Amino acid sequence: xxxxxxxxxxxxxxxxxxxxxxxxxxxxxxxxxxxxxxxxxxxxxxxxxxxxxxxxxxxxxxxxxxxxxxxxxxxxxxxxxxxxxxxxxxxxxxxxxxxxxxxxxxxxxxxxxxxxxxxxxxxxxxxxxxxxxxxxxxxxxxxxxxxxxxxxxxxxxxxxxxxxxxxxxxxxxxxxxxxxxxxxxxxxxxxxxxxxxxxxxx
Length: 202
Prior knowledge:
The protein is of the alpha+beta class. About 30% of the residues lie in helices and about 25% in strands. The longest helix has 16 residues, at about 130-145.
């Protein structure tokens, strides 16, 4: 069961019924990024007010990354909140392009759409593709393998064979070796990427 707390600007914040009385004692607004917030005086009573974010208050987690599972920043039911690392939380960010995880390189003569993914600050190039959809699908395969239930895909996950994700990523990376005019540094990076995938543990 849930209840709703309405902000002065008319936005509805969803909370658990058993947390409603505690939360409704305060006036909640939205910050510039769309999260529910309130202010509170610091303990000495004189210092500048501090901001308290509702989702952090509920989990008693003042620092670090918290994910709203369904993507709704105003759904602060406990079942919709989970603590994650920054890499997993970045999966939720809105892509700059039509699809997530791809870039367009106008300097390339063909296959101008590039797919990349970052795992714990390690970046892997998944190859260059003729269309943005091909690149987006390559990204989906990688994010499903590395991030599993935290994955934020471009297309429906039913389109992918989750049992063969590792083999498909290895093939994507290996295919880069077939490109002409690869210098030694690029080849070494491809080999390093292949080893990273082989040794990755969820």
